Amino acid sequence: MAGKRNSSSSSSRKNRNDAPRKPKKNPLTAAGIATVDYKDINLLRTFISDRGKIRSRRVTGLSPQQQRQVATAVKNAREMALLPYTTH
Questions:
Q1: For the chain, what is the domain count?
Q2: Of the residues 31, 75, 76, 83, which has the maximum number of CB atoms within 10 A of its CB?
Q3: What's the CA gap between 11 and 14, in Å, rounded?
């Protein structure tokens, strides 16, 4: 009995993944921003959750290089006390 799997859960997962995905819009290319600056606090706040965490690429829709730039800029802004580490 241990070898049997629940077929209903795998079929529902299959149906969910069969739908074509719409790619996320890249907010930096839409705004025409080539490089991310740590002093642009309003832009960086869009990539931070309400708990103070940096949002993932899957959520933001950035390219890997842009995500690294955003992460570095957020960390620099936190170090310069422009952004908080956490929000209470």
A1: 1
A2: 83
A3: 5
